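Entry 14. Ran structure prediction on the chain below.
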Amino acid sequence: MTLDPSVQTSAFLREMIGRGHIYQLTDEKGLDAYAASGVPTGYIGFDATAKSLHVGSLVQIMNLRRLQQAGGKPIVLMGGGTTKVGDPTDKEKSRPILTVEEIAANMALIKKNFEPFLMFAPGNAFDPKSTDAIMIDNAEWLDRINYIEFLRDYGKHFTINKMIAQETVDRRLRNNEPYTFLEFNYMLLQAYDFMELARTYDCRIQMGGSDQWGNIVNGIDLTRRIVDKQVFGVTTPLITTASGGKMGKTADGAVWLNPEMRSPFDYWQFWRNTEDADVARFMRLFTDLPESEISEHAKAEGAAINDAKNRLADVATGMLHGEEEAKKAAAAAEAVFKGGGSSEGMPTFEVERAKLAAGYAITDALVAAALVDSKGDARRQIAGNAVKLNGESVTDEKLLMTEAVLDADGTARLSVGKKRHARLKAV
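Output, structure tokens:
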């Protein structure tokens, strides 16, 4: 499929195509016409399997942002119902089953991930003429389903032949991996979601990752059969790095959006460590920077590439955590790598001055700072010459830190390798 933003009528498709958000469309001309008229409404579903979304979900959040910026209404569909089943799509094994209480707690935290990117309706009130986003929990209708009626009214529209032909199901079966009946129902529930949103909110667009194509098409088919509405599907490409790695996966785990799970400093560092070949592409996908500026950064060579990476890190961090936190993170990075700037934005752990007065073991400090997993790991890192204290290499695993290591502001900097840093603050 060849997509040309210059031939699109709608601002939504022009922006989505121009910034590289689109992998597949179900009806390009029909979607373009719909998106160019009135207030187009679209949704993406997010299951509450963790306390935060991560960078891997950010392209979907940006899809909703692009829709709102183009005059459309985004619907964030929280999977309070579907999380009880667990999306098997693109998974090699079943997800753990969460309790109702765990799902509710996760949803409360995940909701905060969207607030920096979307303008929500006051009181979450639905107004079809407004572009204000709303957030809906699919448990509102899925929890009320009568199973026998559901099978009778909707199950008849899904054939086993078609369901097991989906790539994820087929792969699991070919590899002789368990695929539970619980998971098998997920595609029916997601299709029902689209139908319910089309019927109740006149929502005509479902977006998702490329792995959701089969589920989205099922929803389009069910909506056409039951509600008799024309609806559309859009998928985004799998976002990988230039070296082939999965976007958002790092050596120390997922890049969470929740600041309690990933500090603004570490989030800034993630974007600063973007591979050279990915900088312009990630600017288009994950920021609102204009193409004129991005094109200039794409020409950068040598040291200028670092300036482009700093710009990406500043803007991406500012969007999620605010400009003030982005400035603190940039200053803290300068303090680590250049010896200037302020370390205030660095992840901080507090140590009582009494401990320093008695001599505070460097291995204890590294564990307390969450820079290593254990004292044994700390000793291995020191032996490998990976640990620094205030920019100086630590070679003695028995080193006892005293108040002499503190700067004038009562802090000291600890680093493990090039990407893990923390600030010790004496209290």
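The mean pLDDT is 88. Will compare against last week's run tomorrow.
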